[in-house]
Design brief:
alpha/beta; 8-stranded mixed sheet
Length: 256
């Protein structure tokens, strides 16, 4: 048995996808911890931006903020501004990465975080967009981070909250979204990217011990599969140590 949980695996794998000297628009929860982990490992000059207004904060070990709108989210920040100012940065093309999760995701990377079922009479009403639509529309690259299960990866989402490649092909550009793209998806089973021509989700890397059959069995549509599948390296002791120091109570990421 591995010495880490699936949540820790996803967090580490997502953190590895972030590059140094880039900007990342980060939400609460797993994205926050993933970005903080990247900052304390391979990307010390990663600029984290929180919707609450903080630009370039440094997350304190053992004191990860409960939300992006509290004082701990502003530690050593270069600037604390208004949310509208930060979204102006998105509109001006200054944000490299956006982090999103989703209740439903289709093969084109379109995300639903609004309702399950009919919009007027939903089975479940979800939190909605917040800044997610802006992020998926305007960040240079958007990364989806989620648990991998068939009920989440479905052929047709019930509501389009955040656009991916819409109907595939050039439909995103035709809709006026000429900047940015959904770049990759990280789950507890694999890392996926998106085919540039069709916009369809593609399995690129498998996590240790996972087979392509495991991925296909837990996906409600037929993704593309890279000709040469890579295998990710498991989380290192150093990564897990730093992650658990950032979130000692397992508030965001349950420990093994």
């Amino acid at each position: 048995m591995p010495g880490y949980t699936t949540a820790e695996l996803v967090t580490v794998m997502a953190s590895r996808e972030l590059e140094d000297r880039k900007t990342a628009f980060v939400g609460a929860g797993l994205p926050l911890i993933s970005a903080a982990l990247a900052q304390k490992t391979h990307a010390p000059d990663l600029t984290i931006i929180f919707e609450g207004g903080a630009v370039a904060p440094l997350i304190h070990p053992t004191l990860a903020p409960y939300s992006t709108n509290e004082a701990r989210a502003t530690r050593f920040a270069l600037m604390v501004s208004s949310p509208s100012d930060l979204f102006n940065l998105l509109h001006r093309g200054y944000i490299d990465y956006g982090f999103l999760g989703g209740a439903q995701i289709d093969k084109y990377g379109n995300i639903n975080t609004s309702v399950i079922g009919d919009f007027e009479h939903p089975k479940v009403r979800l939190p909605g967009s917040g800044g997610a639509n802006d992020i998926s529309s305007l960040c240079t690259k958007t990364m989806i981070v989620t648990h991998h299960e068939k009920r989440r990866f479905i052929e047709k989402i019930d509501f389009l909250t955040s656009p991916g490649y819409l109907a595939g092909g050039d439909s995103r550009r035709a809709a006026g979204l000429i900047f940015g793209k959904v770049d990759r998806l990280v789950s507890h089973l694999c890392v996926m990217d998106f085919d540039e021509e069709s916009g369809v989700m593609r399995v690129k890397k498998l996590h240790p011990g996972v087979t392509i059959e495991d991925v296909l069995e837990n996906t409600g549509f037929a993704p593309l599969v890279a000709e040469k599948l890579e295998t990710t390296s498991p989380p290192t002791e150093r990564e897990l140590k730093i992650l658990r120091e950032l979130d000692p109570e397992g508030m965001y990421v349950p420990h093994a």
